[in-house]
Amino acid sequence: MAIDALGKPAGAWCEHCAIGSGCRIYEARPGECRDFLCEWLTTPVLPDAFRPDRTKVVLVRHPDGALAAHCDTANPMAWRKEPVYSLLKRYAAESWGSPAKVLARAGHRLWLISPKEDVDLGEVPPGSTYSYAEGPDGKIKATIHPAS
Question: What is d(CA 45, CA 145) in angstroms, rounded to the nearest whole number?
């Protein structure tokens, strides 16, 4: 994820990350980092199997209720592996029809996860939005709206 205070773009490793041992500036990390809590830290019922270092996925709940699976760019399809995939599909089934959506992201590539299918939205540039509609056959058609 992007960290504006450090000039770190989304989809890139932080220059302060010491892989396998953590943040080299942990005590002086910016507020964005201090304030961020992933779902694994805030949801006590998620077992150790969902730890981001094990799944290569950071689960993030957005204020609108959306659940996003941010994948390690070296493992872009990690969201399709268990136990993460079952959790995403279950949440998609529970929230479908509400404003809350389920997404998976690896770098700029984005997927919309619905109860019936996973829709590859392709590369979605920063600041872009998307819309989708479900057809009478249940198939989802998505449109990317580039940032202006």
Answer: 36
Q: What pairing do the DSSP bridges indicate for beta strands 67-71 and 102-106?
A: parallel
Per-residue pLDDT, averaged over 85-113, amounts to: 89
Residue 135 has what DSSP assignment?
-
Query: In this predicted model, what pLDDT tens digit does every residue of 14-26 receive, in sequence order?
Result: 999 987 788 999 9
103, β-bridge pairs: 68, 112
Residue 131: pLDDT over 90: no
Name the helix (H) or strand (E) containing 134.
strand 129-134
CA distance 18 to 21: 5
> What are 22's two structure tokens?
């953590």
pTM of the predicted protein model: 0.85
CA distance 14 to 113: 27
Neighbours of 114 (CB within 10 A): 20
Calpha distance 85→113 (Å, rounded)? 10
Q: Pairing between strand 129-134 and 118-123?
A: unpaired
